Amino acid sequence: MKPSSPSLRPRKKPVQPRAVETYAWMLEAAAQILESQGIDAFNTNLVAERAGVSIGSLYQYFPGKEALLVALMQREKACMGADAATALAAPDGRAALAHMVGAAVRHQLDRPELARLIDVEETRPGVQQEVENVSNYLGLLRSTLARPDLPPQPDPEAAAADIAALVRLLVDAAGARGETDAQHLERRVLAAILGYLGAPSGIGDR
Amino acid sequence: MKPSSPSLRPRKKPVQPRAVETYAWMLEAAAQILESQGIDAFNTNLVAERAGVSIGSLYQYFPGKEALLVALMQREKACMGADAATALAAPDGRAALAHMVGAAVRHQLDRPELARLIDVEETRPGVQQEVENVSNYLGLLRSTLARPDLPPQPDPEAAAADIAALVRLLVDAAGARGETDAQHLERRVLAAILGYLGAPSGIGDR
Amino acid sequence: MKPSSPSLRPRKKPVQPRAVETYAWMLEAAAQILESQGIDAFNTNLVAERAGVSIGSLYQYFPGKEALLVALMQREKACMGADAATALAAPDGRAALAHMVGAAVRHQLDRPELARLIDVEETRPGVQQEVENVSNYLGLLRSTLARPDLPPQPDPEAAAADIAALVRLLVDAAGARGETDAQHLERRVLAAILGYLGAPSGIGDR
Amino acid sequence: MKPSSPSLRPRKKPVQPRAVETYAWMLEAAAQILESQGIDAFNTNLVAERAGVSIGSLYQYFPGKEALLVALMQREKACMGADAATALAAPDGRAALAHMVGAAVRHQLDRPELARLIDVEETRPGVQQEVENVSNYLGLLRSTLARPDLPPQPDPEAAAADIAALVRLLVDAAGARGETDAQHLERRVLAAILGYLGAPSGIGDR
DNA sequence: AATGAATGAGCCTTCATTCAT
DNA sequence: AATGAATGAAGGCTCATTCAT
To answer: I need a labelling partner for C162 at 20 to 30 A (CA). Which of A80, A173, C74, D178 fits?
Structure first.
């Protein structure tokens, strides 16, 4: 995964139905390889083989290995972001926060290893900016923190970043430990966040 | 970084003074390459060159690339662990916790990129067990959480793991954002932990 | 450009007006790519794209990449050959020679890089025989050398070949150096030829 | 032969005797492949195989395929240049010119196909400047043309370039036609040059 | 006739590791 | 002990060509 010179954007969007299918297969193959064999086994030849397409087809849609990874990240992030975005409809900040945490937790526990690896690879230089705004998680978080029922933060920017990181890592760590109880996990993460924000967290009932 | 069949332990401990120096140079070269060029540029030939030794010599001390990485991780963890261990002398749980967080923060802000990369690579299968007990951070954390002035935890094991993860990620994220104010960061992390633990966090003075 | 098994002749002549146009576009696209990006960038997919046709269409007219190149060469040679052929009408050998050189020079300076590349690629095995007789340059030259006002040559075959080569390279080299003054170039080439032939060359007025 | 980004200079000079041998073998293998199979068959794997070394060894000395080609060109040019340089000792301009032509002819007829291909590939962008000054042929030519027994040239720069081109192409063309008589060829080329220069050429005895 | 998705042989290059000196 | 030349498996990517639609 050295070169990195080729663009990180897909070369072309599939239009014909057959191509749409091919494209989706390639992303899913990439996902499966990542979660079952890890990043070191992630190579374009293997992805193509697993997707049941030729290596040439893969390169018709993606200019390089990393672009494939980015497209997969975006697929995952978009999915999670859509779920999280419904938090805007929540009646108050607490509920919205709960919903956002819930979205992250559900997403993570759906395919834990894949989610964890994507979180890790997201830190690659150049990749981050391609992926970060797909789910507008950070932006949503900032809006939510500004709601009146949550304690005002002296540095809202840092608070949002901290919380995003906090959600991500707690959830990753739980996934890595094999936890599968979304409810329990969600409550703990929410408690940590509320504690961090300085809000009474009702931890007693945990 | 595929063939992880060779052992992850150093082949031999350097005994002669010159060998000790060589050994240290190799680790430091590895560290510098990691922090300046990233994991993708981290290869044995480059490490040897930067260390000013031949590739053959490198393989006299390390059975393979991954063992070199592990040794570096251990060097870093040991250093941080020694600092954290002094928390045992703290008068109460809060102070101990603060000291442990402080140790992590100081270590991270010392060489942020190196620390972040090591945290990431630590999750490699096989690597984790070689490294985790070098600094007894988790163990220390468990003891500290059991101190009487901190709220008792229903699942101390999970709590310790969560907190360790929490410290790591908040601090990594801060390092990645370029934060350099150890005091400020330390306070925020501590607030998150105490919030998580359900303890009044004195956030007011943040 | 390895598999030269397919024929070098176009698959079919375009008959419908639209097809004629398409065919011409493909040749022109090939020409433009050659002159602007060089032989290494010359590939069938790019030519098709630039010509605004599908790769499938290109292969309907040409059995392979090399056939496309040959067709382009023939287009260029035919054009130059027609100009040179009017030398037959010249009153004497000197004038005829001058006209032939002039044709080559004009052609070369019209699209220098294209002409140069074609000269180079013409030496490919198999290609040469397809292209050499399109412009009957060599034949014309032989006839011209036999005219009574030019010195008789002991080996007319070799002389014609030498002169053709001489014209080509001097003109290529001038094109590569960026010369654009056709008159000046023409005079120098003619001087070289007459010198080679052992004829007084009237260099004084050069 | 697309990428061309890697440097065109050898990665390192071989120092150990074994390495010197390896290096020479690689150049010779490259030469043999070029002359027997042409530029399209010239690839690094084949060169390594023919040289009896591994592909890895080839890349220890050359940063890429093109650098190998350049090194070969330099080997050939240097050899010819050394021969041509003795022309400085010639008593007059004519003799010097004759010697320079002789050097080119001898070199060309030694390995005609190799020499021809190198002349062609020399025009690659980036390659030219790496190779052109190895044999100082053009410089020598300029000095020689300035000698008092040769007719003064209005544009010595252009004249030298023309003559260099002329020598090269006549000699290439002869090699391509399979000529092997160096004497005969040399006389014809010299005649052409002297004619071009406007000097009485004694063509009569050709 | 035209399209363009798909193919896959083949080439370039890297880098972990070995071993003769 | 140290050296560094040599190895070769592995993987990224291109592009000429085919063929179902």
So the answer is: C74
